[in-house]
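Quick illustration for those who missed Monday's session on complexes.
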Amino acid sequence: MQIVHTKAEVRAAVAAARARGARIALVPTMGYLHEGHLSLVRRAREQAGWVGVSLFVNPLQFGPGEDLERYPRDLARDAELAAGAGADLLFAPGAAEMYPDGAPRVAVVPEQGAEALCGRARPGHFRGVLTVVAKLFGIFSPDVAVFGQKDFQQAALIGRMVRGLDLPVALDVAPTVREPDGLAMSSRNRYLTPEQRVQARALSQALARGRALFAAGETDAEAVRSAVRTRLAEAGVEVEYVELVDAATLEPLRRLVPGAVCAVAARVGTTRLIDNTVFPAGEGALPL
Ligand code: AMP
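Prediction with adenosine monophosphate bound:
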């Protein structure tokens, strides 16, 4: 596996792979890789002859007071893991390589869907995400890009960007990989103390309670929302939101139908965690 830091090196590697007829896949990440990221790389590997992984802690998607500076970083470890999962290239640019002018002079701004859910507490976050993903699409020109359901709103907005800007890339969304006790894997889980790690189980447990209610015939969104909130509150985690939304429009639902998404964000100590589930199965079937 090649490790490169410049756009020019990525373009040369992609051109060489294309010249031998390979389909190009991209897996964008912020690094500190875990099994969730690696499942995306393996999934990309199944669909393409050449797989690039990007590793960039994108300053543009972090707000003031968020964890940009302390976000975990370990390039040597990430390189070993990415190579083991079948990546051909790891692109780890510095901020100046991605944003040579400092703040970008052009950005991709979602017109709708970015104020809901995570956007409420993180204004500008999805502008940062879409801008960097659009740039990565420009740098890699991938045939397919793989994202995780864990960041459901992000995947949905990237889907909108690709359709809205007619970008020639297929999107693939992979199921959330979880710890044995249900906690969705996240690079931020390492911030948790052992006690908080136990508390953090409440997110997936609360979502499971919501799914169970739906399976038992409950279709009133408010009833499910309040049960999910109660479970989170019982565990002593600070709820940021519990929302039941249409997977395609991200609009809140009053009546639940199959394919509805229950999304949560909560703080465990100072660590902000997110998770979601699709009714009824939990994973999959996101209409991107
Ligand atoms: P991040 O490094 O957190 O920006 O995530 C990079 C990609 O990995 C995104 O598409 C995420 O949705 C995906 N991802 C993160 N955690 C998981 C997980 N537990 N399971 C599956 N995909 C994940």
